[in-house]
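Field: COMPLEX_INPUT
Field: COMPONENT_COUNT = two
Field: RESIDUE_TOTAL = 301
Field: MODE = joint
Values follow.
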Amino acid sequence: MQKNLPHICPSCAATLKVKSLVCEKCHTEVNGVFGLPLLASLTTQEQDFIIDFVKSSGSLKIMAQKLGLSYPTVRNLLDDIIQKIETNQTNQKTGTK
Amino acid sequence: MKKWLFNPFVYIAGARALVVGCIVMLLTAVIGFYSHTHFDGVIDLHFGKVSPLSYHLLEQLIDWACIVIVFFIAGKIFSRSSIRFVDVAGTLAFARWVLVFPTLIGFAINAPATLPHDTNEILKLVTPAMICYGLVSLVFIIWMIALMYNAFTISCNLKGGKATGVFIAALLAAEILSKIAIHFLYHDIPGIYEKNIIGAHLAN
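Field: COMPLEX_OUTPUT
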C-alpha cells in the first residue's frame, strides 16, 4: 500500500515539518526541524502530472497527446496545480494551512 | 458516453473542433435552407420563413461570431489562464453540432412563411403536433446551451459560480448582438428578401 505523505496537521491545520530522518541501512537518525518541499504537498496524481510535464519538455501539446485530452483541458490542469502551489507557498510563509 | 455527449471538449478542442464545427454549421445551414429552419439569434430557432441559402449561411456565421467574440472578451477579462482564441472559437463551433437535429424537425413542420395578423388564424396554427415539435426542438437548444457552457468553462478555465454568472451575462450579450446583426441582415436589403420569398413560393 502506498502511503500519502501528510503535510497538514490534523489537529490545528498548520503545515507539518519533518522532525526525524533515518538511514534504512545503518539506522542512523537525524533529528531537527526540516520543511517539506512544496511538491510534497501535492497529490500523487498532481506530482505524476508534473513529472510527465517535465519529461515532455514542458510541452502542453505533447502532454495532451500523451493523456488523450484536449489542449485547454491539460492547460487547465496545469493552471490548477500552479494555483495550488502558489496557495501552498503563501501558507508556508505564513505557517497556516 | 455522457462526457462525449455533454463535454466532448475534454478530448477535442482547438483547430480540430473548429474544422468539425465549421462543417457542421455548413451542413446545418444547407439542411435549414431546405427545411426553412432559421437560427436568427444565438439561441433562437424559428421555422417557416423562406430565404436564400446565403441568409442561412450568414445566420450561422453571425450567431457563431457573436458568441465567440463576446465569450473570448469575457474569458480575457475574468480568466486567470492564458486562453487561446482558437480554443474558444473551436469549442463553440463544435457545440453547435446538435442544431442539425432541429433542422431535420423543420421538414415535419408546415409553418407559414409569415405569421397571419389575425389571432384566430395564429391559434389555428398551434396544433398538438406543432407543440410537440417545438418542445423537442427546445430540448436540442437546451442541449446546445449545456455544450456551450462546457465549451466556455474549458476554453476559458472558469469554474463554479463565477463561470455560471459570466456565462449567463455573456450569452445574453451575444444574443442581443446577434439579434441586432441579423435584424440588419434582413432589413437592410428588404427588396432582395421579399423577391426571394415570392420566388421561393413560385418555385414551390
